[in-house]
# Entry
Amino acid sequence: MNRIRYVSLGLLAVVSLYTGTWAYFSPPGWYANFPGLGLSWLPQLGPYNEHLAKDAGAMFLALACLTLVALRQVQNTRLVQTTGAVWLVFNVLHFSYHVQHLDMYGTRDQVLNVVFLAALVLLAAVLLVPVTALSARRGDTK
# Structure
């Protein structure tokens, strides 16, 4: 069970540190080149706004902080579930916005947006599952 929590929290931490650091410390580069790897998803959403980019970066860094604390205390179910709930609220709202605005992207970027954002929703949702439910399915006793 803890392995699932570690993986989910670890991936969420990496995403938030990557996005937050880039957005906060290099907002023009983040806006022009996010998510990276030759893709660019932000210019289609409207004109560059440094304040908005830095706010997004700060929010992702705050999520990273919470997530890293939960990762260090993965046995603390209440903390892990709270972290999952915070991420789930953000990711569901974020996903909902983007699926309503996919028309501005080509097919490849539409698919990647949906897959990536849905994966983040699932990573957060896994953290809400009670330990006993996951352990019982796998036959774990710890």
Q: What stands out?
A: The radius of gyration is 16 Å. Residues 2 and 75 are 7 Å apart (CA to CA). Helices lie at 2-25, 27-33, 50-72, 77-99, 107-126, 131-138.
